[in-house]
Amino acid sequence: MSSDEKLLRGCLEGKRQAQNQLYRRYAPTMLGVCLRYSRSREEAEDVMQEGFIKVFQNIGHYKGTGSFEGWIRRIMVNTSINQYHATLKQQFVHVENIELLGQEVEKDHFEMSEPGDEPLSVSPEVVIEYIRKMPDGYRMILNMYVFEGYQHKEIAEMLGISENTSKSQLSKGRKYLKNQLAQTKYDLTLKTA
What we know:
This protein is mostly helical.
């Protein structure tokens, strides 16, 4: 019996020690997932906590097909999406208007490409920080498409938008992220000059 199977059995029996071990084993990875969808570390931690509550409440529904970590990850992604929807409702923004999110950013976009420049090597932490600062629509769709592997049809269904909106937001999100990273390169060049 694998260690995951032992933990799963212990959790099914309601053993706190098994729940604690499962949490400690998967929390760092799942926090990384939640950070990509959240605007702040505090929000990501809240989403992760809520996600683990769902894991423990629904652990009996895990059928053993696919990886256990993948099952937990899907719960974290769905919890992040639910948080996103709740935030939209609190801000009186309707999901069908997701296309409007980030239009202010579009006005300030700039192109910065200089022939012969070497690509900027950026740490994953910096990229995640920029992703967390992206407008909601860009951030959600970029995460779901790039990191989770969802197709535009699935994203559209999960977020209640059209496939074309999903494609458009992904394209705009990629441009936004590229421009932010280009600005970082420009800022670093100014500091070293």
